[in-house]
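Supplementary Methods, section 5.1.

A reviewer requested that the exact input to the structure prediction be made available. We therefore reproduce it here, unchanged from the version used in the analyses.
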Amino acid sequence: MKTEFDLIGFDADDTLWINQPNYDDAENEYCELLSNYIPTEDVSKELYNTEMQNLSLYGYGAKSFMLSMIETAIRITNNEVTQTIINEIIILGKKLINRPVSLLNGVQEVLEFFNETGIIIILVTKGDLIDQERKLHNSSLEKYFHHIEIMSDKKELDYLKLLSHLDISPERFLMIGNSMKSDIIPVLNIGGFGIHVPYHTTWQHEDVKKIDNHPNLTEIDNISEIIKLFSNQNS
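The structure derived from this sequence is encoded token-by-token as follows.
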């Protein structure tokens, strides 16, 4: 694998710290709240449909999720949802926002490695600005990154704008993340490189068909393997 880059980007949610399981827990509680109206699996489907309809309005993040939960509850109960349930949904959303940040195994060691070797790394994440800033602050990882970029989305144009701003050509950029759809495929499409670190659970919106045999793509099982990849190249 090529390891000589001008810039390396790291995704945040479910690459550096736990994120999706927190949303899954909140959704499970939400579905139980509304289980007297329709089956829990149907609540989940209706919520996902609402989220997809609202993405262009609200973007990603916990506040968007909470608004979609409230809207879905109103719809599936035919406007009969109680104030008590609405209040419980708001509590669920606030609990999600205030969840402590839990780093994934190996993250601290990998970032320390890049810090010690002098390789420039940046954080490239998407979602609600305040929510992502809060998580980054609580993670105590901000000190490792030369630049922080919080995007509303991660598409080819978003990456091109970022790299243009930082005066980096795509061919000299590597992106590391858990989402093929957001972290890897757009970067490959503009001529960059990607290291995919899959996470055990992924939001269904991020599911895409696996890419095989792409020359600019490296697959690893654990983020700790990055140290070996770069150490072998530089030894």
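Residues 40-58 form the longest helix (19 residues). These observations are discussed further in the main text.
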